[in-house]
Amino acid sequence: MLEVSLVHYIILSALLFCIGLCCVMVSRNLLRIFMGIELMLNAVNINLAAFAYFCDGMVLGGQVFILFVMAISVCEMAIGLVIVVALSRHSENIDVNSQDVLEDKQ
Amino acid sequence: MSFFVDYIWLVPLFSLIAFLIISTGNMFVLHRNSRISAYLTLSSSFLGLVFGVLAFIYCYISENIWFERTFSWISVDALSFDFGFMVDNLSATMVVMVCFISLLVQIFSMGYMKEDPEYSKFFGYLALFNFAMCFLVLSPNLFQAYIFWEMVGLCSYLLIGFWYWKNSASKAAYKAFIVNRVGDFGFLLGMVAFGIFTFNYWINSDLSFLSFSDLNMAVFYLKDVFGGYSVVIIGLLFLLASCAKSAQFPLYVWLPDAMEAPTPVSALIHAATMVVAGVFLLARMYPLFEVSSLLMGAVVVIGIFTALLCGVFALFERDLKRVLAYSTCSQLGYMFFAIGLGAYSAGIFHMFTHSFAKALLFLAAGCVVFALGGRQDIFEMGGLRKRMPVVAYSFLAGVISLSGLFFSGFYSKECIFQAVFESGNIWLSVLFCAIGILTAFYLFRVYFLVFEGEENRSVGEVRSIPFSMIFSVCTLVVVSVLFGFLLGGHFGIKSFDELIYYSFKEGYRPSFLLVILSVCLSLSGVIGAYLLSKAGKRVYLFENLRFVVDWFYENVVSRVFCIVSKLFDFVDRYIVYGVVYICGLLVNLFSLLLRSLSSKNIGVYVVLSMGWLILLFIVLYGFKELFV
Question: Which of B282, B427, B569, B581 has its CA 20 to 30 A from that of B101?
């Protein structure tokens, strides 16, 4: 039976981060971009937890930090979703590339 | 008594306060053109005069004092630019002279400028001038002297162009300013060069930077370390400055035109005080000039050439004030000449006697111009002695003094004559005699044409002259008559060369034969002028002679200057600017490349930023040795 070590966690988190990044890069839908960002944040969280567990199990600094990241990401999501709702009411689509009201059209 | 020396900085301060009150009052229309401004200026000059006289008496009693008080104004490392004042016999005497003539001229102006619409502005400028001039003579170092040197130039410019609506006046003001700029440039360059070359000397001594005290040590240092030529070059730069301010040969052209100013200004600034600043600079920088015979020779040549040339111009001039202006140039040439010969105190003595006599002549001429309603052509005057006897006799006293026949001018001129004679150069003596004749000739020509002879019909009504004008003229007569007697070494009073000397007391006592010779020469000039005026001949012959120099400046110097300026303009426009332009162009091209990357697609930005981040990591990994 293979022992689950730190490297496995790091690979998992790197994969998760890349998936999130690809999601942000390629998608045009604002909701999907938010999902990508959320994935990236969680990848970081896995990293934090893994390092905390394997490197200094007694201090719990990493685990506490995860709570902060989660709180911040929740706040961010709340604001982000409000923007999504406002945008969809305003222009009836949430395609980021077509949001060009600030563009200088001369 | 030493209190007054301690507090001599109050002298210029009074004038500054007067100027500030007048200018702010004028600005806020509190007391526009009221008599208050005149009384303020007068009282400031009077207080200054009282302080100056008491300080002078202290200097007179004590033996050759050198009192200096400064504070550090700008200090960088070991270097410190000081600001303050310095009193020695020379500056104390100058302060008394400046305040005295200022006071009399201000009294005179109360009458002369009475109907001028910008009465208080005039007095404000006079107060400002008094401030600047007093601080100039009290300056303890070159740096401070330069500041006030510029400031008196500014006052001169403002007052020449006082009647700015006259085209000729504003042009004359420009001319004076630009010509003086050439001199100021010399001063600045000389000062900077002197400061840089002797930098180590000042750093190692505990004196303040560029201080006048112990200047000769600095000059010896300069000569030892950098050789004689450095002294010559720096000296020539200072000489250029003196030439511009004191209207000497290549740069004298502004002074005759400066006669566009109101007559009191001509008397104060362009005859008695500001124009002697050049001679004053020579006197202060005398240690520098003294070590090089080449420099002293240059001073002599410039002095004697100007004295001769301007004497000739004065002879053919028909404008009353311009004759006096040329005479001023010529007399300033005398002083240069004397200082260049090493007759330091004789030159300074002549500066004082000339200032009083010339201020007197200008004020008397101002009375004439005032009485005739602004006319200045001496051929349109004549027989005015019967109409205004007081003015005529005052003018005569000034003329006699200045031509060295009698009174103060006699003493100073004899001292210089003795110095010339003792120098043993026969050509200088001959030229000096010629200038003596010339001076008497052109001055008496003016006197005879204006005050004697047939009464000119075209004169018409003569305005009565206010008391204030007569008062200051008469006071000046008394002073310019007595000054020479008092300081001529009689009655147990210190003679001038015991009062003001550099390194040794010259003690030029004119020998009897020389006095006779000099007086006879002057008398021959007087007789010549008398005969000329009797014969009724008017010298028109070379009337346009003086325009030759102006023509030269206008057509040759300014053309050459234009070509040089165009060259510099070309370099600036196409080479300096071109380099800058090409740099800008390159940035522009590169940004064109970058700009093409930007699009509406947000994904591209994310990819790019991630790409840059990865690149950064790679680079950092590559240079990781640097960071560990």
Answer: B282
